[in-house]
Amino acid sequence: MAAEKGWTFAVRGQESLVLQGQASGASYASTVRRTLAPDAFQSTGTITTSKGVRKPEEIFVLDGTGYVKEGTAGWKEQPASDPDMQNKVEDPMAAIEEFRSYVKESGGDVTLTRKGGEVRLQVSVSSRKLPQVRDRAYVKAAVRELNPTLKQLRSAGVSATEDQLTLSSLKQTLVVDADTYRITSHRFQFGFLIPYGGQNITYRQDVREENKGVFEGSIELPTGLS
Fold first, then answer.
1. Nearest of 25, 7, 24, 2 to residue 186 by alpha carbon
2. What is the rounded CA–CA span in Å between residue 97 and residue 120?
3. Is residue 24 a contact partner of residue 156, using CB atoms and an 8 Å limit?
4. How far is Cα 120 from Cα 177, in angstroms, rounded to an integer?
5. Nearest to 138 by CA among 165, 166, 103, 162
6. What is the distance between the alpha carbons of residues 71 and 60, in angstroms, rounded to a whole number?
7. How confident is the model at residue 221 (pLDDT cuts 50, 70, 90)?
8. How far apart are the C-alpha atoms of 131 and 109, rounded to whole Å?
9. pLDDT of 72-88, one tens digit each?
10. d(CA 209, CA 148)
11. Which of 5, 124, 159, 163 has an alpha carbon 20 to 30 Å from 201's alpha carbon atom?
12. Is 79 in contact with 85 (CB distance < 8 Å)?
């Protein structure tokens, strides 16, 4: 990947929350531009709620700081390491380092298959109580993504703790070109069961990223942020 100045990715994601057959959620689509020299990230897209309300979103990450603008609101600035910012930034390039850490921590969880001109790396977890798998790096990422929704549910009276949750499924897949080892696509999908009133609230998230080719431009902060 470092042989080029930068790359463009198409990102699509959706999340849903279901209780007693009633669903709510949101989807989003964005174009991500990622440069390596300098190390910078830009995402321009739209969030769409389950009721059809659309809201533009723009994200920049440079020099360890993230900047987010949603709708007509002003820019918000946070360290790139902040969990809320990490949840916002869908960086396909990060998947390479993620899988490297997975192999180091628990190599047996990573499968590798080669078919045609592609190499597929994958980790997956079937239904498990969260305490059984919470320490695995890829599960930590899913819990981080869930936490904002879990906080909202607690404000609404859902008292379930993390120890009571079930990770219903998790699958993360990185596909690279077998000859160049450049990223072709990345997908992260998972679900949780959250006990409430003798039933379960179901939370699901599915994010897909596809390489759209070389980006030869530069990423610069909007006027007033630099």
1. 7
2. 15
3. no
4. 9
5. 103
6. 15
7. very high
8. 17
9. 999 999 999 999 999 99
10. 22
11. 124
12. yes
CA angle 38, 41, 43 (to 5 degrees): 155
Instruction: Measure the CA–CA gap between 168 and 18, rounded to whole angstroms.
Output: 14
| Distance, CA of 157 to CA of 43 (rounded, Å) | 34
Q: Which residues contact 138 (CB under 8 A, 6 or more apart)?
A: 98, 102, 109, 123, 125, 170, 172
What does the alpha-carbon distance between residue 124 and residue 190 come to, in Å, rounded to a whole number?
9
CA torsion sign, 39 to 60 to 102 to 163? positive
Which residue is listed with tokens 């989807």?
27
| HSE value, Cβ hemisphere, 13 Å, CA-based, for 178 | 9
Q: Rounded to an integer, what distance in angstroms lies between the CA atom of residue 2 and that of residue 13?
A: 26
- pLDDT for 19 equals 87
